[in-house]
Amino acid sequence: MMTRRSAAWFWLLLAVPAVMQLAALRHPDTDLDQLTKESGEWAVRLLVVALAITPLLRWFPRLGWLRRQRRAIGLAAFATGIVHLGLYVAAMGALTVMLAEITAPGIWTGWAALALLLPLAVTSNDVAVRRLGQSWKRLQRLAYPAALMALVHGALVHDGTGHAVALGGVLLILELARFIPRPTSGKDPL
Hints:
Elements: H1 4-23, H2 32-59, H3 65-92, H4 95-100, H5 105-122, H6 126-132, H7 134-140, H8 143-157, H9 161-177
Helix pairs in contact: 1-3, 2-3, 2-8, 2-9, 3-5, 5-8, 6-7, 8-9
C-alpha cells in the first residue's frame, strides 16, 4: 500500500516531464515547436501507460499496485496534454493563426483527444466515482478513442509516425492479449 509520502513522490515523478517542458521556457533560445512536440509525446506516453495497466494485470497480477496508480497516471497524461496545449498556443502566437489551421486533420485530432480526456479528468475523483456508479467506468472508456486521436495527431503533426506506431502497437498487442487464455498454473509469470 502506498503511503502519503510515497504517493507524493509518485505524483512528483509524474510531473517531471511537464515541469521539464515548462522549465525550458526560461531560456530565450528555446524552440517552442520542439517543446510542443516533446510535451505531446509525453502526454501520449502517459496515456498509453494508463491504458496498458489493465491488460498487464491480467498476465502479471503481482503488479496490482499499478491499478491504484492508474488514475494518477491518467491525470498526469491530461495535465501534460494541457501543458502541450499551452506550448502550442505560445508557439502559434495568435488566435487567428490557430483558427486558420483548426480543420487540418493533424490539428483537430489533437483538440478531439483533449476534449475526450476533459470529462475523464473532471470525474477522476472518489466523489464522481461514487455518484456515477457503473456509468463512471463507461465514461472512462473514452480514454481509448482519446488515445487513438492523440496518436493520429502526433503522427500527422509532429512527424511522430514511428512514435505513434510503436505506442499504438504496444497497446494493441496488450489489448489483444486480454483474449488469450491465461496460464492456469496459478503462478504469476513474473
